[in-house]
Amino acid sequence: MDNIQLDSYLRIQTSADKLSAFLTFSRITEDFVCASSDLEQFVRSKGVVHGLRIDVLDQICRNPLAYCREQTMIAQGEAPGVGKDGAIRFVYDMEDSKQHKPAEDQDGKVDLKEVTRLKNVTRGQLIAELVEPLSGSSGKMVTGEVIPPKFGKKARFKIGKNVVQNGETALYAAIDGLITITDKGKINVFPVYEVNGDVDYSVGNIDFVGTVVIRGNVLTGFRVRASGDIRVVGGVEGAELESDGSIEITSGIMASNKGHVKAGRNVRSSFIQDGHVFAGEDVIVSQSIMHSTVKAGKNVICSGAKGLIVGGIIQAGEQVVARTLGNAMSTATAIEVGVNPRLREELVELRATIKQSFESNEKTEKALVILDQMAAAGQLTPDRLELRAKLNATKRQTSVLIDESKARMLEIEKTLEDTNRSRINVSGTAYGGSKIVIGRYTKFVKDSAQRVSFRLMEGDIAMVPYHP
């Protein structure tokens, strides 16, 4: 049966998108006979050339009566593939902070205190990049026409605070801080990280490049590290607080001789009990310092309504100010001024280094004596010759280290002599049992005294009336 004859029996239609083609019988007679090849040729003559369902055409030819009453799909094209949308790729996994799971090391050990992994960035650091959208695959109509692929949607940055866009594809931090995504997906860098509650197992240790504000307590065993300041609107137990700036603690430190508080600048607290506090500049306490180790590069000031310093050791580069020093029970209390505590520590380390170096050199010299004797007897093997050379080099290096350490010790000891500004002021009572050290000089307070100031005068520590 040729195309003209088939045209009187069949109608070929395509869908609006030309992704499907359909065959419909307009009439049927008993003498309708058609070969599959003839039907395929007829369909192609109607412009349907792609995605032909040859098996369906065969079935129509074999049993036309089964298909004469309904529309039959005889060809199907391919729709274009949907492309992949563009995305924002962060330098950190932003979903990681939402999971709040304890950190696990390579050995599978879990640290329950490491549950907060802050997304710290520094100024100028890359925060995120745009990933370009991808196109899908091309499609094809039943008429043979190619359908262009569909591209995914392009991602865009939602600019928040303290971030800058470089071109169209990269986002950078304008300040040091914390990457934070706020409402409607805005990307920000905030200089302050706040904890609305205690630093406990639900929060874990904190390490932040900005300022940390804790609206609660810092419990024993936890660590807070900040490149900026640390403000605790609560108390600090036996925890570790370290700040490159200042640390302020509203409710005081009760450490039970655990942990420490270290600040590059100042430490402020209402009280310190059984604590270890270090400040590059000043330690300022409003109530009391009890049985603690407190070291300040400049001043230790405890001059509030109570203003009590009792027990422990207090070291300051310049001055110590208190209302009450020691107590009626003559509790041992040491106050040292005139040398930056860090220099005192360095002096101790230098003495230890010199001692160890001398001991090392003695052992080296003994070994060299034996090797020299072997060399004189012609018994020195190549290995021992190499050993002698190494020992001689070690001896020279150790001698240089000793000389450098001695020179540094002299520098520090000169600062011990410069104590003109160093003093200890007591506006109330200085009790017996207190040890006063100014530079290299020491004085023990035997009897209580009122409103006194300790300072160096004519090569000795003098106790003079205190004048504000």
Question: What is the structure about, briefly put?
Answer:
By secondary structure, the protein is α/β, with parallel strands linked by helices. It is built from six helices and 35 strands. The strands form six sheets. The protein has a 21-stranded mixed beta sheet that branches. Strands 4-8-12-11 form a four-stranded antiparallel beta sheet, with no helix packed on it.
Description:
The protein has 468 residues and is of the alpha/beta class. The protein folds into 4 domains: 3-76, no CATH class; 87-137 and 146-190, no CATH class; 192-341 and 428-465, no CATH class; 343-417. It contains 6 helices and 35 strands. It has a 21-stranded mixed sheet that branches. Strand 9 and strand 10 form a beta hairpin. The mean pLDDT is 88.
Principal-axes geometry comes out as: elongated
- Radius of gyration equals 42 Å
Q: Tell me about the biggest sheet?
A: 21 strands, mixed
Which regions are unreliable across 5 or more consecutive residues at pLDDT < 50?
none
Kindly give the count of domains.
Answer: 4
Distance between the termini: 123 Å
Total helical segments: 6
Q: Tell me the number of strands.
A: 35
Proportion in β-strands: 35-45%
Mean residue pLDDT: 88
Going by helix content, strand content and strand pairing, the class is: alpha/beta
Helix proportion range: 10-25%
